[in-house]
Amino acid sequence: MRVGLTFSEKIKQELTQNKYSNQAQKAILYSFLVNSLTIKLNEKGVTWEVKSQFNFIVRFISNIFSELFDVNKKIMYSNIKHLNNKRDYLLSINGNFDQIVNDLGIYAKPIDVIKTDAQMKGVLVGAFLSGGSVSSVNNRRYHLELRSNNISYLLFIQTILNKFNISIALLQRRKSYILYIKKSYDISDFLKLIGANNCMLEFEDQKISRDLYTQIHRLNNLDISNIKKSSAAGNKQIQKINQIIDTDVFKKQSNKFKIFCQIRLKNPDASLNEISKIFLNDYNIKIQRTSVNHLVNKLMNL
Prior knowledge:
Elements lengths: L6 H11 L4 H15 L1 E5 L2 E8 L2 H14 L2 E7 L11 E7 L1 H8 L5 H4 L3 H15 E3 L9 E5 L2 H13 L5 E5 L2 E6 L2 H10 L3 H48 L3 H4 L3 H12 L5 H12 L5 H13 L1
Antiparallel strand pairs: 1-2, 2-4, 3-4, 5-6, 6-8, 7-8
Helix pairs in contact: 2-3, 2-6, 8-9, 12-13
């Protein structure tokens, strides 16, 4: 793959490099044309045009046309646009359009044309190539969308995805409609379904790494918080010990209580568990954390 591609572009490039059956190719072409075909009428007759910002997509669609139909083709491109530093690639088609329309079922009801799983997956490939995008793998907010001006087309795609148990929502944005997925596991399932397996693995790797980093960060924050709490509690206990250590009240306390006070004075930041271990290691006294906590409460109430 070329260096510098966005994640969406990597997916599209991978899709154009896959091998497809004749049935799947027809479904891809059907879907791509329904979503992006422009019909031009001039003095020479009718011409079909499809446009993309990616040369590899236009050539992929051009190759499918060549494999399925006897057509005349021409690929052109525009000057580079200053806004996005990209150019448009245009595929111009002339041929027996009646045969192509009938063979692909472009004007028929989708449910009468697209029936098998291979055809449905082909429709999804065509939809992503013509109007799909995914947020960067480094983005913490997951988002995949399929865009079209044809709401009936998107509703049919929504039906297909529901069949494969992928949740997807529909919204209108200005003059176009968008199907979008927000859940990471649904995005992974979608990428696997359309055959973008390498990109799916990259997406999963980044997700696992990000989740692991988040978990470690949370644990570190929790550790820091616990240390701060232990330190604050220890300082309060030391202040209390210093107040009572020379009094008769302190002298009347049990041996365990006096040992606890000694340990706390020497270990101001120690947790209750750590104090329990010091009891055992330094004084050969086995004492549970709950018992240490009882000594703390006794100290603070004196």
